[in-house]
Amino acid sequence: MDNEKMIELVGLTKTFSQTTAVNNMNLDVYRGEFLTFLGPSGCGKTTTLRMIAGFEEPTAGQIILGGKNCEALPPEKRDVNTVFQNYALFPHLSIRDNIAFGLKLKKLPKPTIRDKVEQAICLVKLEEHVAKKPSQLSGGQKQRVAIARAIVNEPKVLLLDEPLGALDLKLRKEMQLELKHLQKTLGITFIYVTHDQEEALTMSDRIVVMNRGNIEQVGVSEEIYESPRTRFVADFIGETNLIAGVVTIKGAGFTQVESCRKRYSIEGDYPYRTGEALTICVRPENIHFTRNIADVGNYNCMEGIYEESVYVGNMVKHILRNPAGETITINRLTRKGEHFEPGQAVGFCWSPKRAVLVDAQAGPT
Amino acid sequence: MRKRFNPGPALFIAAALAILYIPIAVMVIFSFNRQEAGVSWTGFTLKWYLELLAHPDAVRAFTNSMVVSGVTTGVSILMGAFAAIGFHRYDFKGKALLDSFLYVPTIVPAMLLGVSLFSFYDICKIPLSKGTIIIAHITFCVPITFNTILSSLSGFDASIEEAARDLGCSELGTIWRVVLPNIVPAMVSSGLLAFTFSFEDVMTSFFVAGPGDQTLSMYIFGQIKTGVKPTLNALSTLVILSMVTLGIVTQALQKREKK
Hints:
The complex is a heterodimer of chains A (365) and B (259).
Chain A: E1 5-15, E2 20-30, E3 34-38, H1 45-53, E4 60-65, E5 68-69, E6 80-83, H2 95-105, H3 110-123, H4 139-151, E7 157-161, H5 169-186, E8 189-194, H6 197-203, E9 206-211, E10 214-219, H7 221-226, H8 231-236, E11 241-250, E12 254-259, E13 262-267, E14 277-282, E15 288-290, E16 300-311, E17 316-321, E18 327-332, E19 345-350, E20 355-359
Parallel strand pairs in A: 3-8, 3-9, 6-7, 7-8
Antiparallel strand pairs in A: 1-2, 1-4, 4-5, 9-10, 11-12, 11-14, 12-13, 14-20, 15-19, 16-17, 16-19, 17-18
Helix pairs in contact in A: 2-3, 2-4, 3-4
Chain B: H1 7-30, H2 47-54, H3 56-89, H4 95-107, H5 110-123, H6 130-154, H7 158-166, H8 171-200, H9 203-208, H10 216-224, H11 230-258
């Protein structure tokens, strides 16, 4: 990934009769990067992708593709290709002809087409199936055909609209890694749309978290997971505990927050002013149980009423309720020495380094 | 416990099938009967078929029917396909209304259709000819082709068309390279159906046929007035044979399309 801009979205907006699907979006996509649009359904991620592909016309704003404004270009004139969620293979053509479709339209010489198609077929390991029709393939194989059909054209940018959504979990995980390796091998810029946060974290160089047509946060996987900037991102990515509070002291490198009549120190510089309401986010894996709330060093401690525990295989999930009535989830690797009765008061604590502050309300509406 | 065989339903089905098929079977058998009148079997012959071929009116009626139904089918497939593609791809004002209008000719009684077209031609001073029959037949055949092709298109994923655009097809190129190849089976099967409807129509044709433009169905209908002749049996047998063949081909095509 270098610094050359492949796509620039400038003030991109799309309004359908009543609703704003994409609201004034500004984003640069760099050459060779794997960028993911992540968000719940209806957040505008697919609409954005469709505007880049040319299937939807922006209500306002510009899409600059490789330095050229492509406002007036129909989909067939844009140097991008799409992998559709439901594969969208041509049912009347063989696998080979499906893959060759784009190259034939470009009127390339026949030997060139044959070579490129052959290469693409090898790349997605479909050598045995080239003569079959799409209806004879499994979901995973169809997906490979769809990918081969797109990348054989060597587009500037490959757009992928939840391409693994219809596959079962195991196959999806395999394909995630395969796609990531494919992207690194080819060096093509990928824009990937998904609502699956784990998929986004696994595959992406950068993640664009979207909500209600707005970008909530752009960053690499670790940033998005460990330093969510909005309550929406904290809540949407992974599991998190959200504890409401009010700023009492704004210090250098830390912020003191009052919650449930106790004060907690959170490390880091935040733009919140004294007296402002906000939310403390702590990941369930960063919370420990403590027997003695008074003696935990500089850890932040709270007491809650124990509700239940759930065994989920690789860990034990404990559910508590804090004095403010908020649900607290604590994930522990083992149950060793941590058996509690429902209704029992239990102390828990977290490091000031292991919590972040976000706004009190869910992001802009 | 084994279920005891109950003859009731089987008998009922046998009776229903008998009522449907015995007259047809009798007609087919008697088309090969040597005796001209009466119900007794006097020996096998093909002379009624040969006599039929020597009958200029019957041969002309057959030719007329082939021309009328052939042209009707061709035009209906094209109009139906274009209309269906338009309906499938574009949204426009009055689409729902137009959709219901396209159903109407299939439920309007054939006689009313004939009467109304007859008065229309009369008002417009259009002389009756094969052309006027063809127009009449197209009115009730286009809904058949249109609806069959439209339903085959509705099972056609819109993103496949987008994929074609994405890979470099223009809008028209997409219709030609991707949409049409996928609706050919529906076009053929609906065309065969349209042909059958056109071929067997008597009522509408009766009103809008010019002199000398008698179709085969009209000819058969006319011959009945002078009693059932063995040549008529032979002719009907031929018609049934060709219709059944068409029907089988249509069904086979539709089955293949579903796969």
